[in-house]
Structures are given as structure tokens and as C-alpha cells.
Amino acid sequence: MSRKAYVVANLEVIHDRDKFRDYERGLVKSLGRHEGQLLTFSDNVECLEGENPPNGRLVVMEFPSMEHVENWWADEEYQAASNIRREYSLTNFICKLEALPPRT
Q1: Is residue 22 part of a domain?
Q2: Domains of the chain: total
Q3: For residue 90, which of 14, 24, 35, 60 sits 20 to 30 Å off, Cα-Cα?
Q4: How far apart are CA 92 and CA 54, in angstroms?
């Protein structure tokens, strides 16, 4: 049985919010094609502890499996939308991780 997978991203700065909306539309369409969903995002993250808190927007997405994440990332239409993100924002990181294994 495959475990759910998550993508966490930190966009430090969005330079042009109007043009960035084109990326957001492409992201939402690509998530639908790969059974992913946008769980949450916030531009007002408060870090409770740590020396290097992320600045800007944090985004959390969920997928049925790591294979879904990899297919989503490799999707040509998503990568075309990502070019918009790369042009109009500063991305600090995009990470993928699996959900916890079942506890026995």
C-alpha cells in the first residue's frame, strides 16, 4: 500500500502578483490531473522556533503517493506554469515527503 505524499514550498518573494496568478491557475489544473490538492498556503507564517525561519509564502499540497508527486512534477504543462513562477517569484525550496508509515 502506498502512503500519501506531500509537497511543501517556500516562495520568499512574489514580484508581480497579477502575472503570478497565471502560475496559480496552471498549478491548480495540474494538481487536478495528478489527484493532488492544495491543503493550505499563507503569506503570514509565524515561526515558533528556529534560527532560519522561512520568509514569504509557505504552501502545502497533498498527493495519494510519491509516484503522483513525481508524475505531477514531470508534467510538461506544470513545468510550463513553473516557468512563470520562476520568472515572477523567488523560490527558496520545494520539497517532497512521504506521510508517516502505519503504526503497528
Answers
A1: yes
A2: 1
A3: 35
A4: 8
What's the rounded Cα separation, in Å, for the pair 90 and 53?
16
For the stretch 31-52, what's the b/e string if a residue is b when 16 or more beta carbons lie within 10 angstroms of its beta carbon? beebebeeeeeeeeeeeeeeee
Is 80 in a helix, a strand, or coil?
A: helix
CATH code: domain of residue 93: 3.30.70.100
**What is the residue range of 76's domain?**
5-46+55-98
3-state secondary structure 17-33: HHHHHHHHHHHHHHHHH
What's the confidence (pLDDT) of residue 13?
A: 92
Q: Does the residue 70 lie in any domain?
A: yes
The per-residue pLDDT for 65 is: 97
